[in-house]
Structure to design on (149 residues):
């Protein structure tokens, strides 16, 4: 009986460890792309405060060749909100489950891929939104400061 209990507890511990994401956020703004000749991936973040906070992450192919964005799972992007002290107060992906299947998205020349997310009921204050495209080959990060009154 003790062997079965130990096995179950060990299995739960392994699953909990495997399913936990890191909560650290890089402090510098990055906009790294895997640069091949003729490819240029860029990104922009729009933040609108109106009945909550609305985020739009745009990923553009400004190059002269199509680009294939590779993702190691169902999570293509994430958005975090930091307070004035740099503490995370909200994250879009919290509480969400993502498929474990590898996926890709193709951006043709001058195509734009947009992700729209919302933060409902934010407290008044000054914040920084950190949006990331979690592509393995063309990772992007954008930061935008905003205020909620």
């Amino acid at each position: 009986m003790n062997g079965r209990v130990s096995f179950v507890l060990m299995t739960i511990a392994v699953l909990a460890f495997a399913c936990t994401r890191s909560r650290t956020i890089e402090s510098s703004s990055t906009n790294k792309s895997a640069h091949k000749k003729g490819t240029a991936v860029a990104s922009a973040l729009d933040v609108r405060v109106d009945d909550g906070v609305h985020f739009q992450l745009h990923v553009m192919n400004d190059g002269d060749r199509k680009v294939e964005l590779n993702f190691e799972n169902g999570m293509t992007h994430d958005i975090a909100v930091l307070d004035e002290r740099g503490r995370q107060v909200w994250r879009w992906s919290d509480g969400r489950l993502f498929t474990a299947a590898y996926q890709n998205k193709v951006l043709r020349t001058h195509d734009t891929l947009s992700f729209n997310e919302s933060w409902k009921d934010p407290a008044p204050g000054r914040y920084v939104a950190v949006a990331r495209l979690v592509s393995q080959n063309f990772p992007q990060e954008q930061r935008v400061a905003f205020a909620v009154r």
Observations:
- The chain has one domain: 32-148.
- Confidence is low (pLDDT under 50) at residues 9-35.
- The two ends are 58 Å apart (CA to CA).
